[in-house]
């Protein structure tokens, strides 16, 4: 919702220039380009071939975050390994947690129960994960 409001705001106030948007995954980049059109400059932190859990906060990515007006990410701890470092290293107050320039989708949708089986050291056991509103708890069964 905030993303749509910010993009609408840039369309209403074109004299202020394009909105610099940094998205964490390609899907969010495509949505931001579609909604923002010529009023948005979109940079995507990952590619479709990368694991979004394992991105490095490289200097080039930190530089893009420093210039960002808006960061759009999935949340639910998908970017937990690199996004907090990126936010801290950028020094950009607009994209910090709780600020209007930081958007995470996960807290806005109900997450579903996931189940997987983990194998290792000659044994297997089932891990059930319950995802609720951006938090994850695990129970061994």
Going across the major beta sheet, what is the strand order? 2-1-3-4
Count of helix runs = 4
What's the structural domain tally?
Answer: 2
Please identify, by name, the CATH architecture of the largest domain: 3-Layer(aba) Sandwich
Main sheet? 4 strands, parallel
CATH class of the largest domain: Alpha Beta
N-to-C series of helices and strands: HEHEHEHEEEE
Fill in the CATH topology of the largest domain. Rossmann fold
Stretches with pLDDT under 50, minimum 5 residues: 124-141
| CATH-level-4 superfamily name of the largest domain | Nitrogenase molybdenum iron protein domain
State the end-to-end distance: 38 Å
Radius of gyration: 17 Å
> Which class of secondary structure composition applies to the elements?
alpha/beta
Q: What would the principal axes of the Cα set say about the shape? A: globular
The average pLDDT value, as a whole number, equals 80
Work out the number of β strands.
Answer: 7
**What is the beta-strand fraction?**
25-35%
Helix content: 25-40%
Write the SSE topology:
Blueprint: H1 2-12, E1 19-23, H2 26-36, E2 40-44, H3 59-67, E3 70-73, H4 83-90, E4 102-104, E5 114-120, E6 123-132, E7 135-140
Parallel strand pairs: 1-2, 1-3, 3-4
Antiparallel strand pairs: 5-6, 6-7
Helix pairs in contact: 3-4
Account of the 3D structure:
Helix 3 (59-67) crosses helix 4. The longest helix is centred in the N-terminal third of the chain and has 11 residues, at 2-12. The chain has 141 residues and is of the alpha/beta class. The chain contains 4 helices and 7 strands; from the N terminus they run αβαβαβαββββ.
